[in-house]
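Open question from group meeting: does this chain pack into something compact, or does most of it stay loose? Before anyone orders reagents, we agreed to write out a predicted structure and look at it together. Recording both the input and the output here so the notebook holds the full record.
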Amino acid sequence: MLSNQKFIVVGSVDPNGLYNISPRTSSYYSKDAIYWLDFFKHKSKGNLKTTPWASIEVFDKKELKGFQLKGKVSFVTDEKEKSKITDTIIRSSTGKTSSKIFERISQNKTPDVLMFTAKAIHSLDPKEEFRCSPGYG
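Structure tokens returned:
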């Protein structure tokens, strides 16, 4: 579903318990994680720095099916890994190099790269049960 939809919604919470929901179209996933770019670095970044727990939703609007994933977010800080993931996401999203996109979106500022590791997966179908990783509350 992640590869077909190419769109996720990220939910985070601030220290006061106020939620923020943010759509993301620049994402990439591996076997163990979902990565996305944060060009704007506003509410979500502050929330995730303070409270690294997040919810991600992916859905198929034609089939009316989807999943909510709950887990932890970390910021990719290794410059080589960050550059590789950024280029992978930009090329898969636009077919262009990251430098061309940065010129248009963020005055050539590099985005943060975030990595999400799911601890629980909930179906959005109320008849289905959810799956948890060991050690998740």
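Observations to bring back to the group:
DSSP finds four helices and eight strands in the chain.
The first strand starts at residue 8 and ends at 13.
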